[in-house]
Fold these 3 entries.
Entry 1:
Amino acid sequence: MIVVDANVVIHLLMGSGRQVGDETPAPGERAAELYASDPEWVAPILLMSEVRNVLVTLTRHGRLGREDASAMVADTRALFEGRLATSPDREILGAAIDLGLSAYDAEYLVLARALGVPLVTADTFILQAAPEVARPL
């Protein structure tokens, strides 16, 4: 079991994104490998709003169709079936204030700490603020 944030989920949904001739695994490939190695992903309920927001932005910019965006939301909901959680407001506020994170990012961190599992992210602020819990994608 691991906690993942929205950027990891978006990378998984969007696929490889690898450029021709590039041998370095793209974030989408790393996300797929992560899911294959540990498919029990957990996240705060906030994840759904963040994923929807990114997909709306991609749709508005013509990078994604409406039907694809809707399908990706459904895929995300299925991926996290029964594994979207809440954390105490006091702990989220405390972590955000103490570590200089947004309250959104602190939700993921507090959940990972509560479950005693890593938080996998591509967010450098989280990685720097909480190296004891956060792991790079």
Note: The chain has seven helices and five strands.
Entry 2:
Amino acid sequence: MNIPTDLTLYFQGLAIASLLFFLLTVLGFLFKWGIRFRLFGATAFTIVLTVGALGLSLGLFNYQNVAGSVPYKLVYDDAAAHVVIVVPPTVTASQLEATLEQATLGLAPFGRAGQRVMVRARAVIHPEPGLSIPLYLGQATKVNADQVEVKLYEENFAQLPPAPVSAEG
């Protein structure tokens, strides 16, 4: 079963249901049906659901996708100006730049107190068994809504483990 994730479909369906319940409620009060107060409650509840679906469909789940980025995990966010993400240790400099840009643009500006948001990317390396070291690879600062300043720490890329060689055969 394939369930649609586009919330505008749910908003449209709920809006139609609200309108139909409203018309039934008006008819119920005009003809003094015994169910008229239950219809009023159903109408009010459907309108509340419609407003909620409208709010969710206005872009709560809209993320920008930057070509060349790799999956990352958000590990620290102080809800103000500092965010840390973790990328795989096999990331390249161009992939990291795209990933930092995507993560920085994806942050919601609301609740950030007007501060310039800085996103730092790190990878976790394991130089020996039982030892994990976080290695910061770069940072990006959101200058305005569409512009991101990216700075890579080239010296830390040398500490990353070599990429595994794929054997074709």
Note: The first strand starts at residue 73 and ends at 77.
Entry 3:
Amino acid sequence: MIDPSHPILELLKEDSRYPFDAYVFVFESLNFAQNELRMGEEVLAEETEVSEDSVPERHVSGQQLCEAIRQFAVRQYGYMAKDVLANWGIHGTGDFGEIVFNLIRINQMRKTPEDRREDFDNVYDFETAFRQEFKITPSEEEP
């Protein structure tokens, strides 16, 4: 069960455009971008003191995150990815920006001074990205 005082649950009281699952999906997509796709430049967080143990964070741009979200959505939901996102109120890449900047506002994500909400606008068309370019590929696993 989720702690009722979790910052995202507080956020949902103010902005109910996207459900909790949409926020979780964006977090999972960021993890996918950084760890599986190896996206992002290594940068030290501004508010972190530099020490020998400091591990640089990997900063992913808005455009990179949109691409990672596309790949992760297709991997998770296949041809239904566009429908799952639409069910969450996500109809374009600008919605990813709204989610990310809501998370930044409640200190659940960070940004660099160069990052802008507009970086997420019109990165790709959902119909093209999730339907027209969708390809079924056989599994690498042998029966």
Note: Helices lie at 7-14, 20-36, 62-77, 81-87, 93-105, 126-132.
